């Protein structure tokens, strides 16, 4: 078969039978798709810094300074607060951008060269609190992040003894634990107390005290505040939600940055305060979700080869993200968009029951919510 004067086989690599399937996916994309994907990748990797990034970096500098002050105090002068590690919490709602902000700071700091590489001598390691989060599972998660080969179930005391020894062996002085709110899932005060004691033990280790960065949902603050010894060693950074009308200028800059500066699209829509209100409502005020919705809308415009970003692109992005019916699309309805529940799955079209006639479906809309 000939297409455009060439045999179809002329377009195939000679070793197609041995071609890696993932490489084949990349090769078979059209030049247009490749070009759009490159723009979207650039769009998604772009970081919009705000004042809270400056505050976070300031607090991390203070945490590092407290370590240096303790290290420089010699002999009898290393007493009181200089004998123990300190802690910093970074909290906010889901999607607030905490993890991305921390990763960016960790990656760019010269004193954390090699961050993320288990073979490096970076003095900071990040671990994820598992779900469920028992003291044993948290200890094992930290060990894995430190590169320790956990090949069997460890006893709780053994796991944490190994955590202390491995931190010292790797010369890790700073430990970041993300999603620490998982420690509260058990609702078992004994288990929660054990996690608190384990973290306190890291701060108070006489031979190798560790400085902690603990991130997660707002409940992390109350989790730590209930232990007075941890509370007095801890400072806090809170990533608050965006609100109207205070944050309209920032959201306007966000739309312009991602649409015009990074996506090459017209961004006149950034002047539309109604669109900004809908965007904040759709994201429940979450900074990170606002950015994701903007990126998705710009991606929609790029894929359609549209020159200007519009509310239709936001509507399509929101529908794809939530699966909502048209009547519950914040960017589509003419009025009462602020009454639409955007907190979860409410408003998604459900499949009909098995005994229902074909074509029927059960719908939820904002009118149901107002009833």
From TrEMBL:
- Stretches assigned to coiled coil: none
Which SUPFAM superfamilies does this one have? Answer: P-loop containing nucleoside triphosphate hydrolases
According to the record, the residues making up region (Disordered) are 1-23, 344-371
Q: InterPro entries, alphabetically?
A: AAA_22 (IPR049945), P-loop_NTPase (IPR027417)
Which residue numbers delimit the ORC1/DEAH AAA+ ATPase domain? Answer: 84-222
Provide ranges: composition bias, Basic residues: 361-371
| Protein name listed in UniProt | ORC1/DEAH AAA+ ATPase domain-containing protein
**Organism of origin:** Rhodopseudomonas palustris (strain BisA53)
Q: What is the lineage of its organism?
A: Bacteria, Pseudomonadati, Pseudomonadota, Alphaproteobacteria, Hyphomicrobiales
